[in-house]
Design goal:
Blueprint (H helix, E strand, L loop, with lengths): L2 H10 L3 H9 L2 H12 L2 H17 L10 H19 L14 H9 L8 H20 L2 H12 L4 H8 L3 H19 L4
Helix pairs in contact: 1-2, 3-4, 3-5, 3-8, 4-5, 7-10, 8-10, 9-10
Length: 189
């Protein structure tokens, strides 16, 4: 039995400290996926908080067929989608990504001659702006499927399970998202 399995057993028996140790290392990745789906820092925080609460509340339902982290990830994606449903009438904005300590150190350690020039920065900013605009214009399903596939690297089967759709609908959502991004970026070539 792994340490994680032991913590799951302890947590299922009501040990809050064991549950906290289980989820501590996962909160940053959970926030990252929730932020990519919701495109809003406050919604992502709410989604993670709701996901952790739901995981604690339904821990007895965890049957161990999937890895605990995968189960927790799925709950978080569902919570993020629920946050979007609750605020579907409001405009969604992307949260500014705050780099963690390792990213900051890596950036500062980069030599000045390796940094992009002004033209590259301008082009990158324009591309980033177009990508953000297109992600905002996508449906929740398209954006979620795209993020899970291309940012999280999940398989079609995993995405179908998380989004409760069939493989055909999943492929179509990803295809539509990619097509929208390509058409938006084509003039920038």
């Amino acid at each position: 039995m792994t340490v994680e399995d032991e913590r799951v057993v302890l947590a299922r028996n009501g040990d809050r400290a064991a549950f906290r140790r289980l989820v501590e290392a996962e909160t940053r990745p959970l926030y990252a996926v929730a932020a990519r789906i919701t495109r809003d820092a406050a919604l992502a925080e709410d989604a993670v908080q709701e996901a952790l609460f739901n995981a604690w509340r339904h821990l007895r339902d965890f049957d161990g067929r999937a890895n605990f982290k995968t189960w927790l990830h799925r709950i978080t994606v569902n919570a993020a989608l629920e946050q979007l449903r609750r605020r579907s009438g409001r405009e969604q904005t992307m949260a500014d990504a705050v780099p963690d300590d390792d990213e900051r150190e890596d950036f500062l350690a980069t030599r000045a001659d390796e940094l992009p020039g002004p033209e590259q920065l301008a082009a990158g900013g324009e591309i980033g702006s177009q990508v953000q605009t297109q992600l905002d214009r996508m449906t929740h399903l398209e954006r979620s499927a795209f993020v899970l596939r291309h940012h999280e690297g999940q398989s079609l089967e995993e995405i179908c399970s998380v989004l409760s759709i069939n493989v055909s609908a999943c492929k179509q959502a990803i295809f539509r998202a990619v097509r929208k991004l390509r058409s938006a970026l084509e003039p920038l070539r």
